Amino acid sequence: MKRGMDNDLMRLLHGELGPDEERELRGRIRREPDLAEAWRRLEPAWRDLEPPPASPVPPGFTGRVMAHVRGQEKPGSLSWSAAPGWVRAAATAALVAGAALGIGVGRSLPASEASPAATSAAVSVSSLAEEDDSLAGSYWSVVEDATGSDTEEAMP
Fold first, then answer.
1. For residues 63-70, average pLDDT
2. In angstroms, rounded to a whole number, what is the distance separating the alpha carbons of residues 28 and 114?
3. CA 97 from centre of chain
4. What tens digit of pLDDT does each residue of 73-128 get?
5. Is this model's pTM higher than 0.70 or not?
6. What is the per-residue pLDDT for 96?
């Protein structure tokens, strides 16, 4: 008999099958001699099983568990020192690869190929930032220098 069928018989004994599944399996037990034999072996053995009596909790168990829990790190705290070496190495490699890729892509794009959408966004945002002393104003002046466009001229 297949292992899956053994599991189905055990689920039937435990009462874990739905009504339709139970009805179908009981019908198969009546029709299939091998399955009926397996059921005849399992069912009486299951009926005769009795769980052992519950044992009392040892004295001081709760206190030992609570002392152990208090000694653990907080669940929300993460630490690089607690991470395995391969995790730290993989994170470092990913960081270096990402930085190298970003630098490579940044250097491969010529500054003169600014997209029209980026230029129009620079115009609209720089018109909102009237102060040149602000962070946004200094950012857009760097963008203007890099793209070679003057947003002041493009503004109406």
1. 88
2. 73
3. 23
4. 666 666 777 788 898 899 999 999 999 888 877 777 766 555 555 555 555 544 55
5. no
6. 93
Measuring CA to CA, which residue among 128, 120, 131 is closest to residue 154? 120
- Is 30 in contact with 22 (CB distance < 8 Å)? no
Q: Pick from 154, 153, 149: which is nearest to 111 by CA?
A: 149
Q: Which two tokens stand for residue 86?
A: 């391969």
- SS3 call for 101: helix
Encoded tokens for 6 = 């053994």
Q: How far apart are CA 105 and CA 66, in angstroms?
A: 54
Other residues' Cβ atoms within 10 Å of the Cβ of residue 119: 16
Q: What angle do CA 48, 52, 54 make, to 5 degrees?
A: 145
Number of H helices, E strands in the chain: 8, 0
